[in-house]
Amino acid sequence: MSLFLTLFIFTFFSIITLSHQQPPPLDPAEQQSLYQVLHSINPTIPWPTLFPDDDLCLSSPHGILCDYPASNNYSHIVELNFGYVSDDTPNPPCSLNSTLHPLLLTSFPHLKKLFFYKCFNQTSQHISFPSNVTFTFSSNIEELVFIDNPSLITPFSSIVQNFTNIRRLVLIGNGIYGEISNKVDNFANLEELTLSSNNLSGVVPTSLEKLKKLEILDLSHNKLEGCVPESFGNLTNLVKLDLSNNRFCCRIPESLRSLQSLELLDLSFNLFGNFGVPLFLGEVPRLKEVYLSGNLLGGTIPEIWENLGGVNGIGFSKMGLIGNIPNSMGILLKNLTYLGLDNNNLVGPIPEEFGLLEYANEINLENNNLSGRVPSSIKDVGEKLKLEGNERLCVEDKLRCSDDNRCSFNQVKLCNKRDMDIFDAVLFSSGGVSSVLFYPLMLLLLLFMFMELLFVFTSL
Predict the structure, then answer these.
(1) pTM for the full model?
(2) How far apart are CA 231 and CA 8, in angstroms?
(3) β-pair partners for 414
(4) Could you give the CA distance from residue 174 to residue 150 in angstroms, rounded to a whole number?
(5) What is its main location (predicted)?
(6) CA distances, 9 to each of 3, 17, 19, 20 (Å)
(7) Lowest mean pLDDT among 94-103, 169-178, 240-249, 416-425
(8) Domain ranges of the chain
(9) DSSP letter string, 225-242
(10) Among 184, 381, 393, 414, which is most exposed with the fewest C-beta within 10 angstroms?
(11) Cross-strand partners of 216
């Protein structure tokens, strides 16, 4: 037999042998624990019958993943995902009586991801993490995600342990309470910290500045209070900062100008007040969305839009704003899709330049003191424009729409000849002049001309 044929036969049988090699079986202790955990999640499903105990890694439910180490006697569970999300991710479904089995925290030392979605939602049944229990997976966990589990009522400190490798800590819509633990400061690899819609209280620790890799910080819809730490300006990798719907007060930190990667800033519905719209926003070039609604910041809308052409969402509702709407917003914010300026004390005309906002889905100017004629240049955004509550606005008949339910122009009175004459008169300059000042200025001008003529005649 030739050497070539011998090598060919050896290679062929080696491939056949390798293709039939089975990965190492799941650790028996983990397998038995997994059955008990699955039963606690949904006792209506016969898990051992559907998934026999010869090896759960080979025939596991969707959402349960194992690793296959090259040099080990057993495989290990590395992901546990519970709760129906969609047909594309058919995780083991939770029942109405789902509970949190203690073995979940103590029997899977190689776990990298733990995910629960809408599993603990019986208000009559409170689920909590056992106290004084060390999670065996704490040194390996990379993602801990609990979403919409309102009956998970437990202190934040009981969840957070020594998660040295964690990248995502996402706890949304649960009953988690207490203060944000200083243990979080040690999560050097953390990229996302989302703790929204819980019952967290107290102040935010300034030492969060240690999370240098953090890209998402979302603490919205809690009961947090005090000042936003100036040290947040050191989180220079932040892309999203959402502190909305809390009780933060003091001044919006000037240090946030250092967040040069920031794309979303939401500080709406807090207690910031009396300092005006922060001018530093004009120095955050990647900003796409900024929401400050519900804070009585007061002042005028500043001219800060020159470097913010990429902004597509602005929420400045219920802020006590005064003065005119800058024309520059229509000229410079070409990508704007949402503008909320409603429920303020803005005056003057609607800028003609708003007709340039071709991507606008909503421009809300309701409940201000705007006046004059609605410019015809914005007729193409008429269905997206909200104008109610501005009694001094008027609209030309040609801008009326046939669909009363969708067109805000139909909610504004028709202009009469006097409205049109006054409005045209105050537009003799590019910025416009308030009709309140127009007549006094004209009288002063006539008086000045009379005095000049009188001086000429007396000189003769």
Answers:
(1) 0.85
(2) 66
(3) 395
(4) 4
(5) membrane
(6) 10, 12, 15, 17
(7) 416-425
(8) 281-451
(9) EEEPPGGGGG-TT-SEEE
(10) 414
(11) 192, 240
Rounded CA separation 333/282 (Å): 12
Cα 267 to Cα 275: distance, rounded to the nearest angstrom = 14
Phi/psi of residue 2, nearest 5 degrees: -70, 160
| Contact status, residue 174 vs residue 151, Cβ threshold 8 Å | no
Q: Residue 403's pLDDT is what? A: 63
Q: What is the pLDDT of residues 53-62, one digit of tens each?
A: 767 888 778 8
Distance CA 285, CA 2 (A): 71
In this structure, of 122-126, 192-196, 281-285, the range with the lowest mean pLDDT score is 122-126
Q: How far apart are CA 362 and CA 454, in angstroms?
A: 56
Angle at 42 between CA 41 and CA 43, to 5 degrees: 120
Work out whether the CA dihedral 118, 119, 124, 130 comes out positive or negative. negative
Cα gap 239→213, rounded to integer Å = 11
321 φ/ψ sector (left φ>0, alpha ψ -120 to 50, else beta): beta
In angstroms, the CA 182 to CA 216 distance is 18
CA 379 from chain center: how many Å? Answer: 31
Which region, left, alpha or beta, applies to residue 444 given φ > 0 means left and ψ of -120 to 50 means alpha?
Answer: alpha
CATH topology of domain 281-451: 3.80.10
